[in-house]
Structure formats: structure tokens, C-alpha cells
Design a protein that fits this description.
homodimer, about 160 residues, mainly beta, seven-stranded antiparallel beta sheet, two-stranded antiparallel sheet, 10 strands
């Protein structure tokens, strides 16, 4: 027997995607995307949802580039902070002590300490109600050596 | 130290979203979406990626409606089958013994035995490389009583 919960934005599991971008002055910023996920295999693409009021929204529209950095469990506090504060008023990297690192393939910073990084160029943006979905072509996936197994493949348990 | 894995459609965790739809004759079908996830809160919306060659693609374009049924662990074998076979040649419900149940709010079937169901109407479709992303407004979320805690809230551990 099922119970109805009405119209809700509910699905699981929820990943933590920290979106890295530069503003027009080159200041690095990072925020937690409300939602995101892979949306095509060819070209490999990821979709992230961001409200137009967010600082990152303007950065992505200008630079058409972003990174996704995925934290390990020990950085959950810092990831939370990226989700709460706005880069408009705060240098989130200075406060958290984390290191913005310029991506190799796109004009955006990733978070050096996080074990998984995707480098993406924006190929599309789609307005969906309160959020705009940015589609990013994934130009590179980087994974920390510590998350690889003895054969050099990503170890899902460690991730 | 990070290792580069190049351009890949890689992110985690991956949910199992079984997409239910009717064809033009009213025959129910279900498939596993390659990828999907919530993409806006207002209206609550979910995005799923489907290749144009899939039977479900035609159903969604015609009916502009679908459900997402999320299996519990004991139905993983059936969910796998939904992902492998095509509804063009197979009655997947007959083979798996699962029950298609007409949704309350949209012209699409859900899977009665699966504990979580979202009922969605298509509000947008966006071509992204090899896949088309269907955006569905979530009109209802239904959760089996067995997945609720003593206060009637979804129990994430059971889900």
C-alpha cells in the first residue's frame, strides 16, 4: 500500500556536486549544486541545476565553463559551507582553507583537496522553472590515486 | 595526486529509475533510464535521459507522460531485465510477473511492486548528443507504507 506525498522534488540518492567557476575578475568560487547528474554518454555530459540568483549562474553564463569537485566524507563540513554561503560576499576558499586549482581543459577552478574532479564546458542551458539546467560536456575526469585500486581503476567502495 | 581518465560519463551514485509508459495501443512498457535526477524544485521536476532509438522514447513523445518506479533491493533482477530487453519485442511485465498499474495523475503505468513511484508529465525535451533528456513535472510521489517510519515519514535507511 502506497502513501501519496504530492508534488515534491524527491529522488535518491543525492550526490554532492561542488561547482567551481571564475567570475569576470578571475576570482574563484564554489557552490553546491542543488541537483545534478550525467545526462548523456556521447559526448559525455553532465547536467547541473542552478538558480539564476546565484553568483555561479553569472559566472557560468560568462565563462561557459565549470568543474565539478566531489568531496570525500572528511570534507563534508567544507562542502556544506560551500552550499550555504554566497561567493558574492565571501571568499569561500579563504574561509575553508581549501585550494582552488585551475583546471587543465577549461577556464574554471577545481578544489585540489577533493578526490574526484570533472572538467566541463557548457554546451547548453535550459530554463526549468526556478532553476536553470547547465549541460556540460565532460572534457576530463580526474580521480585521486588514493581512490584507485591495485589495477588503477576507481575503487567504488573508497569513493 | 590525481589521475586523468579523459572524457567519460562518470558520476556517482547512480540511482535505478525504471520509466513506465504506454505505447499508442495502450500496451505498458518499462525501461531503465540510463541516467536521471531531480532538476528543479518549482515546479518539482525530474530529468531522464533516453536514446531516440528506444521504444520508450516514442511513447513519451506521444503521451507526454511517464512514471518513475524505484525498485527495492529484492527486485534488482527484474529491474536489470527492464534495462536489457526492448519493449518492442517483449512484454516485459508478462516475463517478470510484475504488475503495471495505471498512474492516478498521468497516462502512464507504474510498477505496483516497487516501493517508490513518481508520476510525471513531460514539460520539455532537450536533445543532448546521443540522448534526449525528458523533463517531467512531478505531479505525485507515492511511497509504500513499509518504507515509512513511525511518524509516516520516508525512512531513508529502508529506502
Amino acid at each position: 500500500m502506497k502513501r501519496s506525498f504530492g508534488a515534491r522534488a524527491a529522488a535518491y540518492p543525492l550526490p554532492v556536486f561542488v561547482v567551481g567557476s571564475y567570475d569576470h575578475k578571475g576570482k574563484p568560487n564554489a557552490m553546491v549544486a542543488a541537483w545534478g547528474g550525467i545526462c548523456s554518454s556521447d559526448p559525455p555530459s553532465i547536467a547541473i541545476s542552478i538558480r539564476p540568483s546565484r553568483y555561479t549562474y553569472r559566472n557560468l553564463m560568462e565563462k561557459m565553463a565549470f568543474t565539478i569537485s566531489i568531496p570525500s566524507a572528511k570534507y563534508m563540513t567544507e562542502a556544506d559551507f560551500f552550499g550555504i554561503e554566497s561567493g558574492e560576499n565571501t571568499d569561500k576558499f579563504a574561509v575553508t582553507g581549501l585550494t582552488p586549482l585551475r583546471a587543465d581543459h577549461v577556464d574554471a577552478p577545481c578544489i585540489a583537496e577533493f578526490p574526484v574532479v570533472l572538467e566541463c564546458r557548457v554546451t547548453k542551458h535550459v530554463k526549468i522553472g526556478a532553476h536553470t539546467q547547465f549541460i556540460g560536456e565532460i572534457l576530463d575526469v580526474k580521480i585521486d590515486e588514493s581512490m584507485l585500486d591495485s589495477e588503477g581503476k576507481p575503487d567504488l567502495a573508497r569513493l
